[in-house]
Amino acid sequence: MLERILSKEECAACRLCCKFDSYDLWQTPVISQSLASRILQEYSPEIRFIRRDEHFLMKMTREPEADLYYCPLLDHERGCIMGDDKPFDCEIFPFRVMNLNGTLVLTLSPECPVVNSKCFDDVCKAALETAGYAFECAHDSPELVKPYIEHYPILAVEESRYGRQFI
């Protein structure tokens, strides 16, 4: 979906989105019950989850002597052990679906160094290609929606009363 702006090789070389410090643990992927079961059965039976209502977050372990947590699905040699079968948050990164005063918006994470080096027009085109799918997933699973953070650029807006509107 995001091949227009990010190649697998670029993502594999960076992996910034697979590590978190204590300030950005809120960005860890939301995991559904069915995905948690699949992860345990098909990928890694030792992963632990933290329940949040009807969904889960993966329990991350703090690295010794650093305020750094790596995703337990990350193999430091090969990348994500799930390949193309990633959780929603990972699948659409560097985009995020956020709630801005009751309206769903598709934002761009300012943290991704690879996408920051890309042509902004290409990033916007990729956002428009992703927005419909992202908003549909957000409606199906509201727990995927993050609260809006002011410094995240808004690339698409969904207005439910008037249909989809994109910037």
Based on the model shown, name its key terms.
five-stranded mixed sheet; 25% strand; 12 strands; three-stranded antiparallel sheet; globular; 167 residues; alpha+beta
Question: Can you walk through the features of this model?
Answer:
By secondary structure, the chain is of the alpha+beta class. It contains four helices and twelve strands; from the N terminus they run H-E-E-H-E-E-E-E-E-H-E-E-H-E-E-E. It has one domain. Strand 6 and strand 7 form a beta hairpin.
Ordered list of secondary-structure elements with their pairings:
Layout: H1 8-14, E1 19-20, E2 30-31, H2 33-43, E3 49-52, E4 55-58, E5 69-70, E6 74-75, E7 79-80, H3 88-92, E8 95-100, E9 103-108, H4 120-140, E10 146-147, E11 154-159, E12 163-166
Parallel strand pairs: 8-10
Antiparallel strand pairs: 1-5, 2-4, 3-4, 6-7, 8-9, 9-11, 11-12
Gyration radius (Cα, Å) is 16 Å
Instruction: Pick out the low-confidence regions.
Output: none
Distance between the termini: 19 Å
Tell me, briefly, the overall form: globular
- Lateral strand order in the biggest sheet: 10-8-9-11-12
Q: What fraction of residues sit in β-strands?
A: 25-35%
Put simply, the count of helices is 4
The total domain count is: 1
Judged by helices, strands and strand pairing, the structural class is: alpha+beta
Strand segment tally: 12
- What is the string of SSEs from the N terminus onward? HEEHEEEEEHEEHEEE
What about the largest sheet?
5 strands, mixed
Mean pLDDT: 88
Q: Give the proportion of residues in helices.
A: 25-40%
